[in-house]
Design brief:
alpha+beta, Glucose Oxidase, domain 1, 2 domains, two-stranded antiparallel ribbon, 7 helices, disordered N terminus, binds 2-acetamido-2-deoxy-beta-D-glucopyranose
Length: 277
């Protein structure tokens, strides 16, 4: 079938990649359970061992992957068991198939993901404001990574204190959630830090921020779960990216690139985000 040349191409690309990927930065902190593959020093041969390298940083430290890896143990909202098995291999080469073809099933708000206005407004959902309608210009461009004070949720007071200049359109808020490594814990933790309603309202009314990123499953603190989402999404101008992986990156200005899947009719989507210096 037509699969064969494609498969060959993919395999070749993989082999090429393996011989050139042993650049994982040792300076970058190890993420539990996802330790970078050990690479033998350059010139040591050894690229005939088929061991892929997994990385958080690319391009000599210029590109940071700020999406979480999908694993069975990653947390799911309100669950103690993580997302569980989400990937199968219904067609496998070991069982005589021409190629391996896996299949996945996950809620659209799993792992690093984006919320569309239809998430909390039923009339927006019905009108079709799904993830396919999100503005890629908002999701891609200059972004500020800021550290939020660790002793409270994001209130109007905190927003004032952060003093984010007018004109800044994309902000990734790093919180206590990152220090507590909540995204690496299987059990959902409702004590995560997020926006209180007044913080969301203040941001919408007093800043130019249109992309709000945060480091746990919801931008809204658990106590203000729906009210904060309503404040953010009512005008259909702000895009919310949740469960970003912001570990070990200096605060400051970056280029962010976030791309949701074009899931027609879906109010959420997994999203791959990177930061570039
Ligand atoms: C195909 O799937 C099998 C498991 O059935 C796995 O061991 C093998 O590595 C896969 N092959 C490729 C080319 O991915
Ligand atoms: C291959 O098929 C057998 C029998 O249907 C099944 O038990 C086994 O799990 C399959 N193995 C893989 C790798 O898909
Ligand atoms: C943030 O709010 C949650 C409830 O939504 C609470 O459990 C948590 O302690 C608060 N965090 C801080 C740092 O105040």
């Amino acid at each position: 079938m037509t699969m064969k040349p494609l498969l060959l191409l993919l395999l070749c690309a993989e082999v090429l990649a393996i011989s050139s990927v042993c650049l994982a930065s040792t300076a970058y902190p190890t993420v539990p359970g996802t330790a970078a593959t050990d690479c033998s020093p350059a010139g040591g041969g050894g690229d005939d061992t088929l061991v892929p390298t997994r990385r958080e940083v690319y391009g000599d430290g210029r590109i940071f992957d700020i999406s979480h890896r999908y694993t069975t143990n990653m947390p799911a909202f309100l669950s103690n068991d993580g997302i569980g098995q989400f990937l199968w291999l219904p067609h496998s080469m070991k069982n005589g198939s021409l190629a391996n073809n896996s299949e996945m099933k996950i809620p659209t708000h799993t792992g690093t993901h984006v919320d569309a206005p239809g998430h909390v407004f039923d009339h927006y959902f019905d009108a079709g404001f799904d993830v396919d309608t999100l503005d890629l210009e908002v999701l891609n461009g200059l972004a500020l990574l800021v550290d939020v004070p660790r002793d409270q949720n994001i209130t109007a007071e905190v927003m004032k204190f952060l003093n984010i200049p007018k004109g800044v359109r994309r902000v990734l808020f790093r919180t206590l959630n990152t220090d507590r490594r909540l995204m690496f814990k299987k059990e959902f933790d409702s004590s995560y830090v997020g926006f209180m309603r007044d913080g969301a309202k203040w941001l919408v009314e007093n800043t130019d921020i249109k992309l709000v990123g945060i480091d746990y499953l919801s931008v809204a603190a658990f106590d203000d779960l729906i009210p904060s989402h309503l404040e953010f999404l009512e005008r259909r101008e702000v895009i919310l990216v949740e469960a970003l992986k912001l570990d070990g990156i200096q605060p400051g200005l970056y280029n962010v690139h976030c791309l949701p899947l074009r899931l027609l009719g879906a109010e959420g989507s997994p999203i791959r985000c990177i930061l570039m210096t």
